[in-house]
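USER: Note each token:
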Amino acid sequence: MKPLASILNYSTMLLSYETRVKIEKLSLTIAICCFFIHLALIIFAFFGFISVKSSFLLNPIAAIYTPFSFILVYEVYLLIFYIPHSITIYIGKQFEIITLIVIRRIFKDIASLDFMSDWFHSKGDLQFTYDIVTTLILLLLIFLFYKNSHAYSKSSHSKPDTMLDPNLHSFIRLKLILAKILVPTMFILAFVAFFNWTMNAMNAYSQKMEVFVELNNIFFDEFFTALIIVDALLLLMSLYFTDKFHVIVRNSGFVISTILLKLSFSIDGILSNVLIIGSVLFGLSILLIHNLYDTKLDRKQLLE
């Protein structure tokens, strides 16, 4: 029991506001350092000091991919950080993560564009176009999602109110326990993903094949699987504290939204982009309908 208690205590420390600020600065520092390391590797490859077959070492623009990976890691941390504070903001962080994944993919693809006159017959150029359009749509949808989220405007940048309804306080405690469990789970998933990636890269290098292929789904495919379980648990836990139909439907809708994001990792091309946009659009629609229920029911109660 002591090792488990130590892990939970360490998770509690990681979920504090003070630690969040430190992790933010550390993530940015590591991202900048790795950006220059990636640039140095590209220069070494250009002058022939190293010989690695990889599109990531052909163009300096591809170096932006590396710092974005660490920014994504920080976003994953923020997602877990906000679980005890607000389910809506937690879902919004999922949308931010998938948007950053698409943007990171753009930086990878832009380094290997064909720039041919027959643009729409090149698979890579088409995917780049899909990602650009998808990013613009996602940014607008996420803005609307947060604009209609009461939790984001009230508590996303401040400490939670200690004067809470007892039921709400109990629900927050359960969400905090869930977040504490998710912290070590995230580290385990990250370690396994990094280990598998290293083995595959070494195997590709030994066989003189393309190294660092299909990096975009590493870790996040498994992580979104874990998030589906977390969303389902949040839905089930909320049933202990509320019987409001629109709240239950909202939380159920968020589970569906996460499942759609997970499915987007297993599909290539425009269908993946459609699933991503559809997921965020569905989440926004569920939130808007939930807010309509809240407004109408509050007005009805006042009239009665």
Confidence is low (pLDDT under 50) at residues 155-164, 299-304. Residues 2-112+121-148+163-303 form one domain. The chain has one domain: 2-112+121-148+163-303. Residues 40 and 260 are 38 Å apart (CA to CA).
